[in-house]
Amino acid sequence: MAALIEENAASAEVLAVYEDIKATRKTDWVNNFWKALANHPPTLKRIWETIKQVMAPGALDPLTKELVYIAVSVTNNCNYCIASHTASARAKGMTEEQLAELLAVIGVANETNRLAVGYGVPVDERFLAAE
Amino acid sequence: MAALIEENAASAEVLAVYEDIKATRKTDWVNNFWKALANHPPTLKRIWETIKQVMAPGALDPLTKELVYIAVSVTNNCNYCIASHTASARAKGMTEEQLAELLAVIGVANETNRLAVGYGVPVDERFLAAE
Amino acid sequence: MAALIEENAASAEVLAVYEDIKATRKTDWVNNFWKALANHPPTLKRIWETIKQVMAPGALDPLTKELVYIAVSVTNNCNYCIASHTASARAKGMTEEQLAELLAVIGVANETNRLAVGYGVPVDERFLAAE
Amino acid sequence: MAALIEENAASAEVLAVYEDIKATRKTDWVNNFWKALANHPPTLKRIWETIKQVMAPGALDPLTKELVYIAVSVTNNCNYCIASHTASARAKGMTEEQLAELLAVIGVANETNRLAVGYGVPVDERFLAAE
Amino acid sequence: MAALIEENAASAEVLAVYEDIKATRKTDWVNNFWKALANHPPTLKRIWETIKQVMAPGALDPLTKELVYIAVSVTNNCNYCIASHTASARAKGMTEEQLAELLAVIGVANETNRLAVGYGVPVDERFLAAE
Amino acid sequence: MAALIEENAASAEVLAVYEDIKATRKTDWVNNFWKALANHPPTLKRIWETIKQVMAPGALDPLTKELVYIAVSVTNNCNYCIASHTASARAKGMTEEQLAELLAVIGVANETNRLAVGYGVPVDERFLAAE
């Protein structure tokens, strides 16, 4: 487990990212993920810039993006990521019913993924033609 | 690779599922996934009933469910599933810009999942308390 | 893709392993996996010795071991391994009905694995006590 | 972590599933997995019906199915599932020697899966022809 | 499969990235990965900037970074990534003997990862204390 | 969780492996991984012989091999393996800056692996020709 760089121990470079996180998210705290990344300021800065760009409202709304993030995190078995993105999704309006349906889809997709691979199903011509 | 059970070679039990797939989806064909599962009628029937239940409109709309399905399939590296659910998502209105944003979120989630694990980030008390 | 070392191009060291594979398996050919590993004779020899030890009859019979091998290979999405171990399992008596049930279990296990992780289910005291 | 729905807090719909689990398994308790799924009764009911169908005696015996379940769960790194299905397998007669051989096969299969992918081994014509 | 944006069909924004790829790598061509990302110029630009930063010489030399990239790609079963990073590693001096040892380490790590999980090995106090 | 076989409870066969581990590593203790494998002496012996062979200095130096081991372990989400191989890598001279760059490469490789799969990028002719 990496040391967590708290705000009072952070360099100016790290603190600037923490401040941007708090301002962008309109919150008064920084979660542990960033405090761990702060052990390597270039990674902290790069990942934060990436998250700001990729998770911003766009053709997909921010809540949908959080649901997708949860789907990846559950499939990869990342407990931290499930906890943090479930919190983010709830903050963006996800209901418990939506979470339950999300988990059901994730479960079934993992099942049919293995069935498609196990049966060696060839991609249909119509799917290829549509690309 | 499993044999694909075409409609003209299907038993009445299999054919009934094929007909329900076509009626439910308002389409005139059945894609290869189902023709492979038809090698084992109980699995064919069970998976189709599951998909009908889980992918139906609910607290989450059908397009969001397809996006989640793609996220799982890309993370699991299932080419068949990516092809079939990308086609389904497009049929439900997914634009190319939405697909591009979806893939960007999937990519970043896979990156930060590994960073959270690699740094061994402990779950924040606030996330635990919120559950 | 690595070059495949055919028997007529193999060193004495590699050939000795090929001969042992054929003798142990009572067959007249060597499949591509070994011809690829032959690019690095220490790996070829080590993996073959490992397979001979681990897949031999023991507390579990050889067919059960092949079914487990298929389960891992489908979960990892390894097409070569699915093809080769499905062939091995059939040679050891696996029926098509058994293969279908195997794939059904693999699919459901992948689904419930994700549900257990997604819901963050804590291990029951009784399971811990039983260990 | 989801709330666990204990029997005294369960709806009639959930309780009916709990009773069927206990009756089918001839046991007096329900493990946490089901109490977590009970947050979404349609998922609870669907997964229980699926497990009853897929894990029932068939062309494969129930113990073999449990071994396959463990193989998938170890490969997916699902601690809950490893604990619960190891308990189920022991209840169905799995010995410690069988568990040790099972883990050995799982380990080696994961190793050779990566070697087959890393060397890019092409599927042998004989394997394709046999399908 | 996404369309590949060839240089003669690329926008000025995309072309600028292609030119930077060629200049940075001292080569006269752009591989398909970038031509696929060019379907979404913000992703193309972001990933290229990320790769330039992360894969640059630093505390780890560029060849070691390529070996790590191959290890991840083999574990994730990404054929494209194995092909492209094996080519990059060879261009940076990787020998066939080094590749063979790399694949052996990847294989064994995947095996022992599953054994550690399967046996549920607790982290040693000395490892925790050292962090 | 498997029982850990301590030295004072080990058979002569197990003890011989423990002694070889300590002598080879010039250390006075045996970490939990081996104490868990000792539940099945043939696996203990086989894995230790494998590790000795594969992790020995060769065309790749031992530190590079540890970095690759960490990359696989992070991608597979094996906490035990991350802890033990991070300790091994540090003992072989890995600096904190090297660890940070290693984690950055692992993260980015996981991201681009999914992008390559998600976009369905075909392998370039030049990469195929080079093999």
From TrEMBL, chains A, B, C, D, E, F:
This is Carboxymuconolactone decarboxylase family protein. It comes from the Bacteria. It holds the Pfam family CMD. Transmembrane segments: none annotated. Residues 42-115 form the Carboxymuconolactone decarboxylase-like domain. Gene3D superfamilies: AhpD-like.
